[in-house]
Amino acid sequence: ELGNLNDAPFSGDEENGGSEEQKTEINGNWIPATSITEAKINAKAKRRLRKNSSRDSGRGDSVSENGETLKVGVVVPTSPKGKLLDRRSRSGKGRGLPKKGGAGGKGVWGTPGQVYDVEEVDVKDPNYDDDQENCVYETVVLPLDERAFEKTLTPIIQEYFEHGDTNEVSEMLKNLNLGEMKYSVPVLAVSLALEGKASHREMTSKLISDLCGTVVSKTDVEKSFDRLLKELPELVLDSPKAPQV
């Protein structure tokens, strides 16, 4: 048996018949040559794959597990991010068109050009009231207080000194809710005229005459001049000739 052993890579059987595959000893273990060949091929393929991936890394490309080149920034359809950007129906139905033709959703009034009919009142409604159909809604104007009165009427009278139209002043005063401040209209007009020219005083006399009976009454005019006489000491400070005027 010892005489049959030799240093050749083939055993006696392989020399005789050649039916067994070639073997190589590595680290004391006998490994078939076909396995070594396959390992070399796989190692060479991996080296080529790593070389290609390192070459394409500068161009923003990456290699998938299957060896396919993928562009960086391109979202894979199967990734979660790709599903978020997908506007198709999650149920797999539909063509991705807007619901209800664009008339659905929050804050939407309807499709363009849609005309709504007049809604009829239901008589059988528990909240129905017979008097609600006969209601007349009017704009309520709050009465002016003392501060708002002077702030509102001063520009009106000053503009009157420019155009001299008493009818325009009358119409503007009728749109205001003067309330108990009606008698203050002549007081304010005379006070502003004392600080102005002689022509302004003549225009103020005409204005009070035209407003009497339409905007203010005779009682309001009497009350206004009584107040002017009481405030005369204060008016003298601004207009020294106020008593004679």
Automatic annotation (TrEMBL):
Location(s) in or outside the cell: Cytoplasm; Nucleus
Pfam families assigned: MA3
Main location: cytoplasm
Positions of region (Disordered): 1-113
GO BP terms: negative regulation of DNA-templated transcription
GO-annotated molecular function: RNA binding
Family: Belongs to the PDCD4 family.
UniProt protein name: Programmed cell death protein 4
Gene that encodes it: Pdcd4_1
